[in-house]
């Protein structure tokens, strides 16, 4: 195994000292390195052509810039790309790249597996294997940018789609494998690189952190000073039902989650998103919609309704469309903004709650496009 240390595990502010190693180095040198990594998607020292060869050789012995290895890519009919990635210790995670209109959104994983145990989530079956490091979180975005450079959104969706020629991820959602707030310090360090002008330079407004509701950590995120969007998976309007669907509720009941949400700083027109996975016959009645509206009345919020995406062996059913629409109508009538999430990548098990590492094709009318990546392929 490589003895090199991932440079991206260190804060950008430390790079000048780390890279100079006590020698005299122009102040702009570490900024050049950052530009190669974050603007030009370079993943080896050799590719940084305008930097002195002597420095590059020295750094390449010490600092690792490698990306996760793309083991497999599945392309959905709607252009969604599910990426199976292998990390340096052999652990595997998934990221999902979702093209739509002028957006290239990457759904990022924060842990290998997840220990939260939501009953409607396929990742929960894996349990928690380990937390991701900063470089592993950022590696997903670096790799996606590399893939988009090779194959921009318009190529994926087709010439007629009218999609812009996007070759970079421009929205991020921490909704992949894992509970991001359970890997809090690493998440905040990754967010700092994502939003730094010398890093990915993404607006915090284009980043959403989704949580199952770790109340204390919601507060901590609020004081971390990076005004990302907060999404909270609620999925039940009563404590009893939520405890049955999301056992984390035993430690973080709805009332303490909502209290923590009240303290989350919102900028102009920013709102908290409450995600609500609709499970047929379980939490999708008009009465439950009314109860949800009552809970959320004090908040500047919107509800994102997510009809359950079944997967092989899942214990729940997708609700009838009429019930979904009725649920939404009740919320709207009560003055709660409620949107219905368009399911993306369902045919490749890349939709919300479907991420897990074993490929289990759903019975679909047309098979998804499969593209198995040769492990030796440079990415
Ligand atoms: S929904 Fe999110 S928090 Fe819940 S088990 Fe799945 S990955 Fe973990």
Question: What's the layout of helices and strands?
Answer:
Layout: E1 5-6, H1 15-20, H2 29-38, H3 53-62, E2 63-64, E3 69-75, E4 81-86, E5 92-100, E6 103-107, E7 111-113, E8 128-131, H4 134-150, H5 153-157, E9 171-174, H6 184-195, E10 207-211, H7 215-223, E11 229-233, H8 239-245, H9 254-262, E12 272-278, H10 286-296, E13 301-307, H11 321-333, E14 337-340, E15 369-372
Parallel strand pairs: 1-2, 6-9, 9-10, 10-11, 11-12, 12-13, 13-14
Antiparallel strand pairs: 3-4, 3-15, 4-5, 5-6, 7-8
Helix pairs in contact: 4-6, 7-9, 10-11
Order of helices and strands: EHHHEEEEEEEHHEHEHEHHEHEHEE
Task: Sum up the overall morphology in one term.
Answer: globular
Count the strands?
Answer: 15
Helix percentage range: 25-40%
Taken as a percent bin, the fraction of beta residues is: 15-25%
So how many helices?
Answer: 11
Mean pLDDT over the full residue set? 89
* Whole-number count of domains: 1
Q: Kindly, what is the distance between the CA atoms of the first and last residues, rounded to a whole number of angstroms?
A: 20 Å
List the uncertain runs.
Answer: 359-379
CATH topology: TIM Barrel
């Amino acid at each position: 195994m490589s003895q090199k240390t991932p440079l991206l595990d260190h804060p950008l502010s430390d790079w000048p000292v780390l890279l100079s190693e006590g020698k005299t180095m122009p102040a702009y040198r570490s900024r050049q390195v950052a530009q190669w990594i974050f603007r030009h998607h370079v993943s080896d020292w050799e590719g940084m052509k305008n930097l002195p060869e002597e420095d590059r050789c020295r750094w390449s012995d010490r600092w690792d810039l490698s990306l996760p290895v793309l083991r497999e890519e599945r392309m959905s009919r709607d252009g969604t790309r599910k990426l199976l990635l292998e990390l340096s210790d052999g652990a595997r995670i998934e990221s999902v790249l979702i093209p739509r209109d002028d957006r290239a959104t990457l759904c990022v994983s924060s842990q290998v597996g997840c220990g939260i145990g939501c009953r409607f989530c396929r990742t929960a079956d894996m349990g928690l294997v380990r937390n991701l490091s900063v470089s592993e979180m950022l590696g997903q975005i670096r790799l996606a940018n590399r893939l988009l450079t090779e194959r921009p959104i318009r190529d994926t969706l087709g010439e007629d789609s009218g999609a812009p020629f996007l070759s970079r991820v421009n929205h991020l959602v921490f909704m992949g494998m894992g509970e991001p707030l359970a890997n809090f310090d690493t998440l905040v360090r990754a967010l700092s690189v994502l939003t730094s002008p010398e890093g990915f330079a993404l607006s915090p407004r284009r980043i959403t952190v989704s949580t199952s509701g770790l109340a204390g950590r919601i507060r901590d995120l609020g004081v971390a000073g990076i005004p990302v969007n907060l999404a909270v998976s609620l999925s039940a309007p009563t404590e009893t039902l939520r405890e049955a669907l999301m056992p984390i509720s035993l430690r973080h009941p709805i009332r303490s989650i909502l209290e923590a949400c009240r303290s989350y700083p919102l900028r102009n027109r920013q709102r908290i998103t409450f995600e609500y996975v609709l499970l047929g016959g379980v939490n999708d009645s008009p009465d439950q919609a009314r109860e949800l509206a009552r809970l959320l009345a004090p908040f500047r919020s919107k509800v994102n309704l997510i009809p359950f995406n079944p997967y092989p062996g899942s214990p729940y059913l997708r609700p009838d469309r009429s019930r979904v629409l009725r649920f939404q109508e009740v919320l709207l009538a009560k003055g709660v903004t409620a949107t219905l999430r368009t399911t993306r990548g369902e045919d490749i098990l890349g939709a919300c709650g479907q991420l897990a590492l074993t490929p289990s094709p759903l019975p679909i009318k047309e098979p998804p496009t499969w593209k198995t990546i040769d492990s030796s392929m440079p990415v």
